[in-house]
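Standup notes
- HV: blocked on the assembly model, inputs below
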Amino acid sequence: MKKVYVVGMGPGSQEQMTEKAREVFASCEVIAGYTVYVELLKEAYPGAEYITTPMRQEVERCRLAFESAAEGKTTAMVCSGDAGIYGMAGLMYEVGEEYPQVEIEVVPGVTAALGGAAVLGAPLGHDLCIISLSDLLTPWETIEKRLLSAAAADFVICLYNPASRKRKDYLKKACEILMNHKPADTVCGIVRNIARKGESFQILTLGELKDAEADMFSTVYIGNHETKVIRGRMVTPRGYQL
Amino acid sequence: MKKVYVVGMGPGSQEQMTEKAREVFASCEVIAGYTVYVELLKEAYPGAEYITTPMRQEVERCRLAFESAAEGKTTAMVCSGDAGIYGMAGLMYEVGEEYPQVEIEVVPGVTAALGGAAVLGAPLGHDLCIISLSDLLTPWETIEKRLLSAAAADFVICLYNPASRKRKDYLKKACEILMNHKPADTVCGIVRNIARKGESFQILTLGELKDAEADMFSTVYIGNHETKVIRGRMVTPRGYQL
């Protein structure tokens, strides 16, 4: 049967990719993806034909991948991080309703929340929420409600898309909402350029995070009431008795 | 400097492991872990010395890993899935306060939430919560509060440890709480034995999930109000206009 793969390539470097993802990329005749991610693959998989579309042309990108697969070419849609967490897997299923003859296989990968957590130490050691601050596809009221609920129930929170050129003050707004339920000295972290050139991290309080700089290559972590700093890292205990 | 790695091995099969994890296991003289996970590694890495402790002896397991590293042996602590999501990374930092001479490096992996999602389709396509139903280390009241908040704010929810021999009715209790805010026809999924022998999945409604069977090898997904079934799979749209 004709087949299209939706593959999570991990947060950046080849070494954070799963063996399965590497096998799929190596076996595919066509790799489709967002321009920036495709550039990361071209060197390692020079034999494939690449299809790219810029941001905001995700539906078109999916159609091109299905068209390629429908022509009988083994095709992969590449996603940064995981294939499903704010990735293309969902949209591929939606667009795939038009292509019942093409089978879809999703290949998971290390999402930014996990990759960045490993850099920070162990911030995600207990129940957690992942929330995107991007309001391109989600009303800001929904995002606000989720932030407030997550803070009230003392989840560890990981924020994707904390800021962009057009949304400079979103992280500040988010922190103000979280501070309704989380104290200003809650341990927080920012990781920039996870597993890529220029990777860096910062540990700070929620009060400091409110005025911190973040961009679209940052992932942000807000601890629960037990999160602490150990050996200069952000650690959320699971609750074991030492 | 002396070093101990905390490594997520992915949900089960070798092919879901990252290249970095494989390199670390191949380079380590000693691999410590829970008995069941270590058995999955022994065949692929026969040259290592293995240290195992059973469940409930996690602190001792961490001490043994640090003692091994402190003796100058390259040592890895293996975790199922990711190293940080209900894994050993946090406890390793806590125990590591006694071993300042040993550096800690965390290697992330594909956690069950992501591995199972790929099997189900694309259930985690929007903001999500991960909650463990195990009350061994967390008061049940805290778990209840988190379930209620997550449902009220329309998160997609992934449940770890949905049941065990001693906690047969926990999934039922959780579903009853979620049904305060999520309708009984909310699309849900269960994946069993992710990326292992006997892998299977089931898509059902929240009302059906309440009476479904789950065990400690199951991961459970509860959709948000937009989650739907496409081509027999569980899909949560991100919100793109088709």
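- HV (later): unblocked. Chain B has a mean pLDDT of 96. The two ends of chain B are 54 Å apart (CA to CA).
- Next: hand off to the docking folks.
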